[in-house]
Amino acid sequence: RIVYVNGEWLPESEAKVSVFDRGFLFADAVYEVTAVIGGKLIDYAGHAARLKRSLGELGIASPVDADQLLDIHRQIVARNNLGEGLIYLQISRGPADRDFTFPKNPAPTIVLFTQPKAVLANPKVETGISVVTLPDQRWARRDIKTVQLLYPSMAKMEAMRQNADDAWLVEDGFITEASSANAHIVTAEGKLITRSLTSAILHGITRASVLDLARGAGVPVEERAFTLEEARQAAEAFITSASSFVMPVTRIDGEPVGNGKPGPVTQRLRASYIENRLAGAI
Ligand code: PMP
């Protein structure tokens, strides 16, 4: 693969980041993952806007402007001949002698690489995924997309140990989100319930697009926290993320959701997300 590091295009074996990089030592870095289909960027504007917000929250100055950022995304697709897959972007505060305080004159590090992946033809779409619930033990600023992903990794490992595909995280009896996706349920009355945007969850770009499409299609949407019990009683459940789009959740803690099959609202939203976002891809 050809990767991008601080203004240079290099084979991955030649790319280097300092051992003193604060992304490495302190997880002092933010990231974005953007899906690519047919060589085009899906929901790019949302990812670029959230990146700016995450950087702003941490006071990291972007090493590139908006035009450069888009140009780098386009070039990395072209240079790697990426038809379908993901673009990973990370910006850290950069290298500095190890100290808890931020450096006075930081030089942020920017890295991008690609991951080829069949995003559309995901076999899990047919069956849905199974999730187990685990306590949400992440830090309290989940709205900032930092690379501090140890707890989500541990949660995912625990889910796999329990023969499930993913974890839904629970705080004070309410579902926050999945290990790396937003969590949603559909009630028997056909109402979509999803957690509102606070610092308890990441403000998913796919979530925002899907909610727009749901409202446009006349699906009632309620943005509020829902309990584990409500999730267990739901007719349908699903997750959203840039890498899974809209993915049905058909088991929670071993019990089927509704009839245990991907639900009609979920399937319609997946189809409409794909159709709409492919048409808007850049
Ligand atoms: N929540 C968390 C914790 C995530 O890590 C992600 C994806 N990285 C999401 C939600 C989904 O966000 P998006 O739709 O922007 O990919």
Automatic annotation (TrEMBL):
Keywords: Amino-acid biosynthesis, Branched-chain amino acid biosynthesis
Pathway: Amino-acid biosynthesis; L-leucine biosynthesis; L-leucine from 3-methyl-2-oxobutanoate: step 4/4; Amino-acid biosynthesis; L-valine biosynthesis; L-valine from pyruvate: step 4/4; Amino-acid biosynthesis; L-isoleucine biosynthesis; L-isoleucine from 2-oxobutanoate: step 4/4
Pfam families reported for this sequence: Aminotran_4
InterPro entries reported in the protein's UniProt record: Aminotrans_IV, Aminotransferase-like, BCAT-like_C, BCAT-like_N, Class-IV_PLP-Dep_Aminotrnsfr
Record's catalysed reaction(s): L-isoleucine + 2-oxoglutarate = (S)-3-methyl-2-oxopentanoate + L-glutamate; L-leucine + 2-oxoglutarate = 4-methyl-2-oxopentanoate + L-glutamate; L-valine + 2-oxoglutarate = 3-methyl-2-oxobutanoate + L-glutamate
Claim: Amino-acid biosynthesis is one of the keywords in the record: yes
E.C. code: 2.6.1.42
The family this protein is said to belong to: Belongs to the class-IV pyridoxal-phosphate-dependent aminotransferase family.
PANTHER family per the UniProt record, alphabetical: AMINO-ACID AMINOTRANSFERASE, AMINODEOXYCHORISMATE LYASE
Primary role: Acts on leucine, isoleucine and valine.
Protein name per the record: Probable branched-chain-amino-acid aminotransferase
